[in-house]
Amino acid sequence: MRDLPPLSLLRAFEATARHQSVTKAAEELFRTHGAISRQLKLLQEHVGAPLFDKDGTGLKLNAHGHGLYALVTSVFDQLEQGYTRIRTQVQRAGLHVACSATFAMRWLVPNLADFYRQYPDIGIRLSMTSARGIRSEGADLVIAWDLTSYPEADRQRAIRLAPVAFGPVCAPGYASRAASGTRITHDFTSSAWTYWDGQSKERIGTGGEIAFPHTHLCIEAALSGLGVALVEQRLVRKELSEGQLIAPWGFLELPFGLMALPGDGVPPPDFDNFLRWLRERLAREAV
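== LysR family transcriptional regulator ==
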């Protein structure tokens, strides 16, 4: 058992010492003058020594009072800061969302302003990671294009968010030699090219391959004229509209879609709202 006075006595003492007035302390704490005086008396009895000296019509701390005031102020400051931090966390508990760095930078973050307009009290904490590491983030929700490398149980419980359309893109000056040029592939989602080859009659990038671990790097390689990258159209909308990249062979809808995989634990309260927003926002963009 801790040998400490009740917190109410320490609050009365701290307010009185700060104001150097029982009356002002009583006003701040919504107590009567008599109640604060009794609490100060009980505290001094617990300490075993006076804490104040008379100073005209007011009070001033004596040596024991100064020592206790410094201690109480420090503890109250820490308590207030910690309590505020916890309240903020509770009020903006939010969601931990994991997705590829490219999807986060090129679609999710640019669209979050729309989400916060609808749900200003829900905080989103992002983990931007490669497809290889995305499973280890402990997120409430994982967003991914391709779950073929995931366990069957995870694929069964994944939620389809939207169809996806991939297409070969390249710099305008590269198109004339794209058929026999270099194919830019992604280290962890090479199945996209397999699906494209199976559904399209176009033979593109037969002259070799270069691979990168992030879609963003694949896009940058295509922009630099290094070859042809197969990319989901949402991720290159800006470059296509500005003419930095072209998609001469169009886009094909691929079967795996954009998927949401819930975390292993109980979904947080804001899970359904975020999922609903994702689906609605993605549906506005024609595939």
